Prior knowledge:
The protein folds into two domains: 28-110 and 209-313, 3-Layer(aba) Sandwich (D-Maltodextrin-Binding Protein, domain 2), CATH 3.40.190.10; 113-205, Periplasmic binding protein-like II (D-Maltodextrin-Binding Protein, domain 2), CATH 3.40.190.10. Helices cover 46% and strands 16% of the residues. It contains 14 helices and ten strands. The chain has helices at 3-20, 42-49, 52-55, 68-77, 87-95, 139-150, 166-175, 187-193, 202-205, 218-223, 225-242, 248-259, 263-277, 288-300; strands at residues 28-34, 58-64, 82-86, 100-105, 113-116, 130-133, 159-162, 180-183, 197-201, 212-217. The strands form two sheets. It has a five-stranded mixed beta sheet, with helices on both faces. A five-stranded mixed beta sheet has the order 7-6-8-5-9, sandwiched between helices.
Amino acid sequence: xxxxMQTLLGVVTAAxxxxxxxxxxxxxxxxxxxxxxxxxxxxxxxxxxxxxxKDEGLEVTTIYTGNNAMVAQQLVGGAFDxxxxxxxxxxxxIESGATIMIVGSAMLKFPYxxxxxxxxxxxxxxxxxxxxLPLPKSAPTVYWNxxxxxxxxxxxxVEQVFEGATPNRYAALESGTVQAAVLTQPFDMVxxxxxxxxxxxxxxxxKDFGFxxxxxxxxxxxxxxxxxxxxxxxxxxxxxxxxDPAQKERALASLAKRAKIEPKAAEKTYDYYVNSxxxxxxxAKVPPDYVQSVINxxxxxxxxxxxxxxxxxxxxxxxx
Length: 320
């Protein structure tokens, strides 16, 4: 082969490699609002640590608000490009006039547990004591009240106090300020390691209830659909990674580092998620039935009156 042909082949090969690489000359900076750095946000942690956001041309800054409603409010206000909050918070916000929609899922299934000291074995043991819950009308509170009723108790039998972030609820339990707490992973696992016990697994009790979703404003959906598409794609790839046994150790390291937990707690969280709960939906999709179950609950709690409210009022499936 002549030198001229070798040079030409080298140029063609280089051009082919460049064309096969992501065409992102510069990363697009976006701000994502989330609630707190717990296992519910594991896909976003993996997407960041494994470089999936960068592969999609995104430089993501995550801001934790400590409150579901605050994520929706700041998304509407333009402080966030994308948000992760609960399905019920999103639906309430839309019903109040917020121009936002669900565009994907973060942790679809309900991951909460009611954690208590080992001395508490039954619902009756909590009579006259105190439980800390996320919000007065939140799904964990509704399901807690249902469980109490099914076990011969009234909601008023156990004093209810409220705090939006799991780490703070865990701190209240550990300090003895409350005798029961609604916790998500890995904090329920950490509590069990310290001698507490799970009184109710709400992940099993509240079947097919849509939990955390990826949300965007209608303005962003209309003006920057590719930004959302790239974000959802990175999250979907991260979910595949979490479920991939070959990536287990790296995924666990990401969770332990970003949620600031011990490796043993991360390992137990992995075992619960991958082998039991399966909380993450492949493709970061949101099955309409999961949204419908939340609509039904909000109708039950009187958040709005029964009316023709199709799932499409809240869910945009064009990014799947």
